[in-house]
Amino acid sequence: MTPSAALPVGSIPLVGLGTWRLRGAEATSVVATALELGYRHIDTATMYGNEADIGRALAGAGSSVFLTTKLPAERASDARRTLEASLAALGVSAVDLWLAHWPPPDIVAVWSTMRTLRDEGLARAIGVSNYSVAQVDALVTATGEVPAVNQVSWNPRSADFDLLAHHRGLGVVLEGYSPLEGGAAADPVIVRIADAHRRTPEQVVLRWHLEHDIVVIPKSAHRDRLAANLALFDFELTPGEVAQIDALSR
């Protein structure tokens, strides 16, 4: 079983499958392959246009799969109908995690609506995506409730350690998308560390996320890469290696 991070209700597997740009039969096939390989965390969004495709792959998978979808900022005024449509497309009665995909104009009002729908049982946990420290603080100040997760772009070239420290202090789980962007896997520092561990540079980058307790959602449509992206739990980076990778974004 994939190790996980605690949420207010349940826990989120530390490695998931990102599904942005996967559509139609390809999305269904890739998710089905990921489930076969052992993935138990699938990340989608209303704006990806693939929820029904993913729902077909999830049919029969049961409650063992952690499912995330996201509310587009432009549909913030119609949050209930948007979430209900997502649930119907995915074929579930509730998602494990529902995120505000980007900050809408009135972040507090939308957060309050999301809390209501969570309390009605349509989502087990709620969070945000692409929110700044100030925006997260504004939600907490206004409502007293901390987002379970903030999903942001995170890779060795663009890591925001101030955001990480702030979220750790509040108890917000940080989740990183686009973990392999920025070309860091080709950096000599990471290539050298990969050689030392007999791993691929991409696996080292993903493992670096885990060393910081960051949930990571790499994406691929290829079976061998899907398998490699999940094979992260039988090796560890040393503190020195983590520091070397950290320095790439400082």
Spell out the helices and strands N to C.
Answer: EEEHEHEHEHEHEHEHHEHH
Strand order of the largest sheet: 3-4-5-6-7-8-9-10
User: How far is the first residue's CA from the last residue's CA?
Assistant: 34 Å
Structure class: alpha/beta
Outline: globular
CATH architecture: Alpha-Beta Barrel
Reading off the top of the CATH hierarchy, the class is best stated as Alpha Beta
CATH fold description: TIM Barrel
Number of helices: 10
In terms of quaternary structure, the protein is single chain
Q: What percent of residues are in strands? A: 5-15%
Would you write up a description of this structure?
- This protein has 250 residues and is α/β, with parallel strands linked by helices.
- It has one domain: NADP-dependent oxidoreductase domain (TIM Barrel, Alpha-Beta Barrel).
- It is 42% helix and 15% strand.
- It has ten helices and ten strands.
- The chain has helices at residues 24-37, 51-58, 79-90, 107-119, 133-143, 161-170, 188-197, 201-211, 223-230, 239-246, and strands spanning 4-6, 11-13, 17-18, 41-43, 66-71, 97-100, 126-129, 149-153, 173-177, 215-216.
- The protein has an eight-stranded parallel beta sheet with strand order 3-4-5-6-7-8-9-10.
- The two termini are 34 Å apart.
- The mean pLDDT is 97.
Summarize the structure.
The protein is α/β, with parallel strands linked by helices and 250 residues long. It has helices at residues 24-37, 51-58, 79-90, 107-119, 133-143, 161-170, 188-197, 201-211, 223-230, 239-246, and strands at 4-6, 11-13, 17-18, 41-43, 66-71, 97-100, 126-129, 149-153, 173-177, 215-216. The protein has one domain (11-249): NADP-dependent oxidoreductase domain (TIM Barrel).
